[in-house]
């Protein structure tokens, strides 16, 4: 596991409590097993190397919860940062994303739960995104890795690092084309739309659109503007005559 992921896991583990796990684990018949496993991970610091139901189910169901509807949104986000950190670790242990949760959802989870009042969390995520992108690329069959490239761009802007954001924008354009040119993955694409067309898992695309809408281009960087425009204002195909 990359040191960046280990650091993120320890960061989230140090802040979550056993009470958070018991309060926010999904309330379905698997609840006792969920609490038992995730409490053990928190207390021991040991993440199982293989994905299993009690890991993926908690990661997946927790993703869809709206923090505003929980009894303590702040504590819930702390819990979800922990489950997302474990999800990233599972990818780094070699588990395929379809055993953990699709990569574009996980990248979104990490960004949407960013601790706005803790710069160290932002710095940790900025290290995790490129290392996870590299892990996904190395498999040669994970085609959603450009969402982690886009995440690098977003996080760099949140850090005020526009040089890094511009580099990520250029890399994202290359990554989108690389996926479309890869015969192992391009049969799985959903359309021509830049980035968002790379996946059929589209339920959280509104969040990606919102992230894109928050981007800035203070230096009129060509690739940055191309990325923003291609995501927010995709070209409309003419109706056939």
Describe this entry's structure for a reader.
The protein is 62% helix and 0% strand. The protein is mostly helical and 241 residues long. 37% of the residues are buried.
Describe this protein with a few key phrases.
mainly alpha; 11 helices; 241 residues
The percentage of residues in β strands lies in: under 5%
How would a textbook summarize the main sheet?
Answer: none
Count the DSSP helices: 11
Morphology call: globular
Overall helicity: 55-70%
Radius of gyration, Cα only, in angstroms? 18 Å
Helix/strand structural class: mainly alpha
Poorly predicted runs of 5 or more residues: none
Order of helices and strands: HHHHHHHHHHH
Cα(first) to Cα(last) distance is 54 Å
Number of extended strands: 0
Report the average pLDDT across residues. Answer: 94
Chart the SSEs and their pairings.
Layout: H1 3-15, H2 18-24, H3 31-44, H4 53-63, H5 73-92, H6 103-112, H7 119-139, H8 146-158, H9 162-181, H10 205-213, H11 222-232
Summarize the structure.
This protein is mainly α and 241 residues long. The protein contains eleven helices and no strands. Helix 1 crosses helix 7, helix 6 runs parallel beside helix 8 (146-158) and helix 7 (119-139) packs antiparallel against helix 8.
